[in-house]
């Protein structure tokens, strides 16, 4: 028994509709490739399913733009007219917005004020006051941030200073370093011993003398 003819109407079941679309789409693509090879035809196909999936086929040697241009020439239909008109409408809208914004900028700079009434001037004044408030707020924030950064750097410097002082104190207390804290202060203050080498009584310098005997007046 042969296959029955399918009534050409919308398939209500979504699953069956998608399966039928996939099968017939593959068949159409196959036929298009056969026409391209057998008949040396320029074939271009664009398909959009109900779910928004896009499928296309274009002959390997075919330029789609040239096909569209030839179609417009033969059919007399301008495919780009509606799109061009929409683009022109959008352009005019953007030009209007640009003109309005430029006028507002000039007015905030004190220019082009002749055509403004009391209400508009009052609104402009309030806008300028709000802008000035925001600028001041930003300025104070920057100052506070820079002050906090300076405090952190100052704290780090103080910590490094304390570490160095502690290290010097440790060197003055340890007999192997050869310098006492008293000698260091004497050197810094220019006391009676401008150059003083303090050390352990049992240590000898490189010349063989006791280190506590070496002092230069």
TrEMBL record:
Q: Which residues belong to any copy of the MADS-box domain?
A: 1-61
Pfam families attached to this UniProt entry: K-box (PF01486), SRF-TF (PF00319)
User: Under the GO molecular function aspect, what terms does this record hold?
Assistant: DNA-binding transcription factor activity; protein dimerization activity; RNA polymerase II transcription regulatory region sequence-specific DNA binding
Which part of the chain is the K-box domain? 84-174
Arranged from A to Z, the UniProt key words for this protein are: DNA-binding, Nucleus, Transcription, Transcription regulation
Q: What cellular component terms from Gene Ontology apply here?
A: nucleus
Q: Where found in the cell? A: Nucleus
GO biological processes: floral organ development; positive regulation of transcription by RNA polymerase II
Q: Which SMART domains does the annotation name?
A: MADS
Per the database entry, which stretches of residues form a coiled coil?
none
Please state what the protein is called: APETALA3-like MADS box protein
């Amino acid at each position: 028994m042969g296959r029955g003819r399918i009534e050409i109407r919308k398939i209500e079941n979504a699953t069956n509709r998608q399966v039928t679309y996939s099968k017939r789409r593959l068949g159409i693509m196959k036929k298009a490739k056969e026409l391209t090879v057998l008949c040396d035809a320029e074939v271009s196909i664009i398909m959009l399913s109900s779910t928004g999936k896009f499928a296309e086929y274009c002959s390997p040697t075919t330029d789609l733009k040239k096909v569209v241009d030839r179609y417009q020439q033969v059919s007399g239909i301008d495919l780009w007219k509606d799109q061009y008109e929409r683009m022109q409408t959008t352009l005019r809208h953007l030009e209007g917005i640009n003109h309005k914004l430029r006028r507002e900028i000039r007015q905030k700079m004190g220019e082009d004020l002749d055509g403004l009434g009391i209400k508009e001037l009052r609104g402009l004044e309030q806008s300028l006051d709000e802008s000035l408030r925001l600028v001041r707020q930003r300025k104070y924030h920057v100052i506070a941030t820079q002050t906090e950064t300076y405090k952190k750097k100052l704290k780090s410097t103080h910590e490094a200073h304390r570490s160095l002082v502690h290290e010097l104190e440790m060197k003055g207390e340890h007999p192997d370093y050869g310098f006492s804290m008293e000698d260091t202060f004497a050197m810094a203050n220019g006391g009676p011993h401008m150059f003083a080498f303090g050390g352990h009584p049992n240590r000898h310098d490189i010349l063989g003398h006791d280190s506590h005997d070496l002092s230069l007046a």
